[in-house]
């Protein structure tokens, strides 16, 4: 039986309409995908700008000019040769620093020496806090261009000295990155460890430190399973120190760092290797960077994030 002409036309128009709808949906999906890609690239580029700003600020990691381990008892601090702790810049003598066995620290500042403590002018004897349990006291000198803080690593204390005029900062050649690759933004499942768990981390100086180890992150990439041990530096973020198959080749040999947000209610978080970056020790010898634990040495070519540092030019 032949279909009436009107019914045949209706069917043809209906088919055309369905095809047009499918084409419109496909175009809409493509536009949404492009928009999401551009938004993600914008996020990563903004993160890179923030990373560079933090690194190059006057008191950033590039400003380090000294690391001086402190003896128990008293030591004079300054640029003169006869100081027990001789700095590479600043007045001949900043004062006498005292380190007690209980870890308490003080600085006695001579009259006439221009020194600030946490931004305020200071004289006489002042107590200094190390970075052991929070922000360290900042001792400023050299008309505000330089400063030092006391850091604690393992059971030892040291002065970490900064100068805004450090060549590592003023002649910094910039950063290089791999192309942004969304496939290296992975969903990871968090497995909590018992409260109070720690992990032994070796730093660049060979010191072993116990750090808070709240749990591990497991993820899949290229058909393989991987696990990373996370460290909590006290801010609740999951700090990851990693090495991978690019280490020592296209990326810094010792390690790279990245952070992940705490896991959500579903027990997962995002690990974005496009935000992996070089530790301070990639740029300066005056840092004490942690090394990756064995579990965080990935059998994976992570061609994402920050590449090895550019060489300095004369």
- Largest sheet, described in full? 6 strands, antiparallel
Shape: elongated
Q: Give the H and E element order.
A: HEEEEEEEEEEEHEEEEEEEE
Assembly context of the chains: single chain
Number of strands: 19
Strand content: 25-35%
Helix residue percentage: 10-25%
- Nearest-integer average pLDDT: 93
Based on CA atoms alone, the radius of gyration comes out at: 27 Å
Structural class: alpha+beta
Number of helices: 2
Distance between the termini: 91 Å
Strand order of the largest sheet: 1-11-10-9-6-7
**Weakly predicted, low-confidence segments:** none
What does this molecule look like?
This protein has 314 residues and is of the alpha+beta class. 18% of the residues lie in helices and 32% in strands. It has 2 helices and 19 strands. A 6-stranded antiparallel sheet has the order 1-11-10-9-6-7, with no helix packed on it. A 5-stranded mixed sheet has the order 3-2-4-5-8, with no helix packed on it. Strands 16-15-12-19 form a 4-stranded antiparallel sheet, with no helix packed on it. β4 (95-99) and β5 form a beta hairpin. The longest helix is centred in the first third of the chain and has 52 residues, at 5-56. It is elongated, with a radius of gyration of 27 Å.
Keywords:
314 residues; alpha+beta; 18% helix
Question: Would you summarize the structure shown here?
Answer:
With 314 residues, the protein is an alpha+beta fold. The chain has helices spanning 5-56, 167-170, and strands at 64-69, 73-78, 85-86, 95-99, 105-109, 116-117, 120-121, 124-128, 139-141, 146-153, 156-163, 185-192, 198-202, 208-212, 215-221, 224-230, 238-242, 256-260, 268-272. It is elongated, with a radius of gyration of 27 Å.
